[in-house]
Design a protein that fits this description.
alpha+beta, two-stranded parallel sheet
Amino acid sequence: MGEKHRVVILAADLADSAAAQKLKRAPVEVTLIDRRKFHFFKPLLYQVATGSLSPGEIARRYAVS
């Protein structure tokens, strides 16, 4: 009973990132696997394409702990 459960989240998007944040408070070990070290907020991607926002304004690095 002393062993923690493990949760693996693959190909993280906005909902997966939120789930990982919620699970930080639970007694589980969370592993988030994605090919990038950051998350793009895709609804604003068109504004980057038109030059009104920079990529850094719609990207957030995943927190590593």
